[in-house]
């Protein structure tokens, strides 16, 4: 039997980056001292666009990997963090190629920014926490019946 339900894996993947996006959007508004309606709507629109890109690019890949790992009972906290870092690496390479047209000459310079590792780790922790909350809620509903 699978460790996690496929429906809960999908929901957790969709909900995982929302906390980070809200925090970053609020920090962006506060740090730039832009409190007018147009600036707030622009930041919210860009945040929503980033969320849609996340849903299109990473959710299908992460979902497939998570379902395979769950069937083998290998979907753990550390595999979620490692998967989050792996997806971040793939997306950063694609983004670098799209925005600059080429990869940096020393390729390893692409992965030297510790801040992005922390962001990927935060999203991985959110994924793990949301998945556990959804599974516990489902188990409690089953035991009540």
UniProtKB/TrEMBL annotation:
- Segments crossing the lipid bilayer: 12-31, 37-65, 77-99, 114-134
Q: Which domain of life is it from?
A: Bacteria
Recite the UniProt keywords alphabetically: Membrane, Transmembrane, Transmembrane helix
Protein name according to UniProt: Uncharacterized protein
């Amino acid at each position: 039997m699978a460790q996690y339900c496929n429906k809960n894996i999908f929901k957790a993947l969709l909900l995982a980056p929302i906390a980070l996006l809200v925090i970053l959007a609020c920090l962006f508004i506060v740090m730039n001292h832009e409190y007018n309606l147009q600036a707030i709507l622009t930041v919210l629109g860009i945040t929503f666009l980033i969320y849609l890109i996340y849903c299109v690019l990473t959710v299908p890949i992460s979902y497939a990997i998570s379902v395979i790992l769950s069937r083998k009972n290998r979907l753990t906290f550390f595999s979620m963090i490692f998967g989050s870092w792996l997806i971040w690496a793939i997306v950063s390479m694609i983004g670098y190629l799209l925005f600059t047209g080429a990869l940096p000459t020393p390729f390893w310079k692409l992965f030297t920014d510790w801040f992005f590792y922390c962001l990927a780790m935060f999203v991985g922790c959110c994924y793990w926490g949301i998945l556990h909350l959804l599974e516990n809620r489902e188990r409690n509903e089953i035991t009540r019946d």
